[in-house]
């Protein structure tokens, strides 16, 4: 009998050893899968209630549980859960009673990272209004486009943006958009200051009847994304999606005791949905900074006792490139959550700033699928397994980059790629994984849907991203397709930049694209342009126009003068060859120019400038 038990125990040990060899991540896969399953069940129960339990309700529950707990640390200021709750109730009453805002109307928010962002958001939730998060870097036509696409009736901002507001104020009044400053006084005629009224308003809880029409499918937010084509679009974030996404921080191991450092812009989904939403869901504290600063990053972490940081790849590269100090490992950060970190930066970060658990994730703002690298495998932006694929039906399919379209077989269906091959990520649109689309023109949403992908009549969300999956289920980002590239942590819509350049008198046609730069995340902007007959290139004029009309991250750093711009048979501009040729003056024989901020002009590109960029001696 003893020999029998010895054999059984030996076989079990052997199975465990074989399991670790052939399925090294099995247990972690199972733990994460059941965690995701539990989270999904919790969200379903909340949303099935009538009225549904939303993120606002979770926030209000935290207010009742620990009203005096700090929610926002900002400079020398501290705002408790009760402070944000009371101020949001005051704002809700002013917007409803004084401004006359009705449930379901859209309010655009044009703010920097300030505590007001949070109480404005919660205030709008309390009266069932939709908050449109406007990028505070945009100006003029881009700003007007953003406001019109979401049909905003009210714009909330501060006197910090006085010049930008006055530039478009006549057009806003013509469209019926009312502008208010969140300040004591207004420096602009025709813009009312609301802060005095907000402070004197009642801070008592707002009745649920003020948001009686809210359902899981109701829009909570509009967050702007360039997607892969056209001008920036207002992605619809429903109450259902908001609640589900806000649970990601908990799934990554964030607890109520954590303090999250948030220097990323709150008009993006990463900082607002995952960072701020995740904090409200878990019930922890945010250390908020108006803007990312390499100089102040670790000092802030030490000052506030930060335990969790949220990042984008560019931010981590800046930290690694900063001069080393004796205090590099003097901090309490235990967890980093973000996306876009390159392998070499990842390794350097862990080596220099001590081992920190890193959870890289993937997820498009408007997308219906997401991934988390819960293992911590360096370089991977997520992990999947056969159980995950049962819940989220996604696939990587063959894609023709030059034709800018999926490859289809003789039956007209898309073709999955093999393990280790690069393919376009598509995710099936179902009742459990819906695609809410964009505000406004339905055609914008339709362009993101692929039909008849594997069977007649099926619908898949087109992510516009090329990924690769290895044998262990780890996913790696390869490239972005279409008319968008990413620079300085921002998505740049090439159509918008092309339209801006085309308004110049000397420009006949423009083709804008992103080109890779050694040692930098993403791609930097470059434009190939055709000049009108008889008109010379004027570097100072183009520089001034670009600076006036575009945010800094979207301004093309290089300009290439072409006799003609190649197009496809359907007259779509070709970019792939231009991207491959980049900005090397040895390769390019066309006139080539570089944006020089000191000269306030585009100056002729030289081999010396190219070498300085390649050797990282010239800051871009």
UniProtKB/TrEMBL annotation:
Reaction equations catalysed: tetracosanoate + ATP + CoA = tetracosanoyl-CoA + AMP + diphosphate; a very long-chain fatty acid + ATP + CoA = a very long-chain fatty acyl-CoA + AMP + diphosphate; a long-chain fatty acid + ATP + CoA = a long-chain fatty acyl-CoA + AMP + diphosphate
EC code(s) of this entry: 6.2.1.3
AMP-binding enzyme C-terminal domain location: 496-572
Broad class of where this protein is predominantly found: membrane
Membrane topology: Multi-pass membrane protein
SUPFAM superfamilies in UniProt: Acetyl-CoA synthetase-like
Protein name: long-chain-fatty-acid--CoA ligase
Primary gene name: LOC114582183
């Amino acid at each position: 009998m003893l020999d029998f038990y010895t054999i059984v125990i030996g076989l079990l040990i052997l199975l465990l050893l074989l399991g670790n060899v052939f399925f090294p991540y099995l247990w972690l896969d199972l733990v994460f899968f059941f965690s995701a399953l539990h989270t999904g069940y919790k969200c379903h129960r909340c949303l099935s209630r009538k009225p549904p339990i939303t993120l606002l309700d979770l926030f209000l529950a935290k207010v009742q549980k620990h009203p005096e707990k700090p929610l926002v640390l900002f400079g020398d200021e501290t705002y408790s859960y009760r402070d944000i709750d009371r101020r949001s109730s005051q704002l809700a009453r002013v917007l409803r009673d004084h401004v006359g805002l009705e449930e379901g109307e859209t309010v655009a928010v044009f703010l920097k990272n300030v505590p007001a962002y949070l109480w404005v958001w919660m205030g709008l939730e309390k009266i069932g209004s939709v908050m449109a998060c406007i990028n505070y870097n945009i100006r003029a036509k881009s700003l007007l486009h953003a406001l019109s696409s979401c049909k905003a009736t009210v714009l909330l901002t501060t006197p910090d943006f006085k010049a930008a507001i006055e530039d478009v104020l006549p057009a806003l009044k013509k469209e019926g958009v009312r502008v208010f400053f969140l300040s004591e006084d207004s420096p602009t005629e025709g813009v009312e200051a609301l802060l005095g009224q907000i402070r004197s308003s009642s801070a008592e809880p707002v009745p649920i009847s003020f948001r009686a029409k809210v359902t899981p499918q109701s829009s909570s937010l509009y967050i702007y994304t360039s997607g892969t084509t056209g001008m920036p679009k207002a992605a619809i974030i429903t109450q259902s999606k908001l609640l589900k996404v806000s649970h990601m921080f908990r799934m990554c191991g964030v607890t109520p005791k954590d303090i999250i450092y948030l220097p990323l812009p709150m008009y993006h989904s990463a900082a607002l949905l995952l960072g701020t939403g995740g904090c409200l869901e878990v019930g922890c504290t945010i250390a908020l900074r108006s803007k990312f600063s390499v100089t102040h990053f670790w000092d802030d972490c030490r000052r506030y006792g930060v335990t969790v940081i949220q990042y984008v790849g560019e931010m981590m590269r800046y930290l690694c490139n900063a001069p080393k100090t004796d205090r590099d490992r003097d901090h309490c950060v235990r967890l980093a959550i973000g996306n876009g970190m390159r392998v070499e930066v990842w390794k350097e970060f862990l080596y220099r700033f001590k081992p920190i658990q890193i959870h890289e994730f993937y997820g498009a703002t408007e997308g219906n699928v997401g991934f988390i690298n819960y293992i911590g495998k360096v370089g991977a932006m997520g992990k999947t397994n056969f159980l995950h694929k049962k819940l989220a039906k996604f696939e990587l399919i063959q894609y023709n980059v030059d034709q800018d379209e999926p490859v289809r077989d003789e039956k007209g269906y898309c073709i999955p790629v093999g393990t280790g091959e690069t393919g376009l990520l598509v995710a099936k649109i179902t009742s459990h994984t819906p695609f809410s689309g964009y505000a406004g023109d339905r055609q914008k949403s339709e362009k993101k849907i692929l039909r008849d992908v594997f069977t007649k009549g099926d619908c898949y969300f087109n992510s516009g991203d090329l990924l690769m999956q290895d044998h262990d289920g780890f996913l790696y980002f390869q490239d972005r397709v279409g008319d968008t590239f990413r620079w300085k942590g921002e998505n740049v819509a090439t159509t918008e930049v092309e339209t801006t350049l085309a308004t110049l008198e000397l420009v006949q046609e423009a083709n804008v694209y992103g080109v890779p730069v050694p040692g930098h995340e993403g791609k930097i902007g470059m434009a190939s342009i055709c000049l009108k007959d008889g008109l010379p290139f004027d570097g100072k004029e183009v520089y001034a126009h670009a600076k006036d009309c575009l945010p800094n991250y979207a301004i093309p750093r290089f300009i290439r003068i072409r006799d003609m711009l190649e197009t496809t048979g359907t007259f779509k501009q070709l970019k792939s060859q231009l991207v491959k040729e980049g900005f090397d003056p040895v390769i390019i024989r066309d006139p080539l120019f570089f944006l020089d901020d000191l000269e306030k002009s585009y100056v002729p590109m030289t081999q010396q400038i190219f070498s300085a960029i390649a050797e990282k001696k010239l800051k871009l």
